[in-house]
Amino acid sequence: MTHRAPVPAADTAALPRRIADCYVDELIGLDPVTATLMGVEEGAEALPDFSPAGQAARARLARRTLERLADAEALPGADSMRERRCARLLRERLTALLSMYEAGEGMREVNTIASPVQQVRTVFTLMPTESERDWELIGRRMRAVPAALEGYRAALAEGLERGLRGGPRQVDAVVAQLTQWVEGEDGGWFVGFASGDRPGQGPELAEAAAYATRGLAGLRDWLCGVYAPAVSGAPEVVGRERYARFSRLWTGADLDLDEAYTYGWSEFHRLLAEMRAEADRVLPGATSPWEALAWADEHGERVTGVAATHQWLQELMDEAIEALDGTHFELAERIKRVESCIAPEGSAAAPYYTQPSEDFSRPGRTWLPTLGRTTFAAHHLVSTWYHEGVPGHHLQRAQWLHVAGELSRYQTTVGRISANCEGWALYAERLMDELGFLRTAERRLGYLDQQMMRAVRVVVDIGMHLELAIPADSPFRPGERWSPELALEFFGRYSSRPKEYVESEVTRYLGWPAQAIGYKLGERAWLRGRTAAQRRHGTRFDAKAWHMAALSLGSLGLDDLVTELSTL
Question: Full-prediction pTM beyond 0.85?
Answer without folding.
Answer: yes
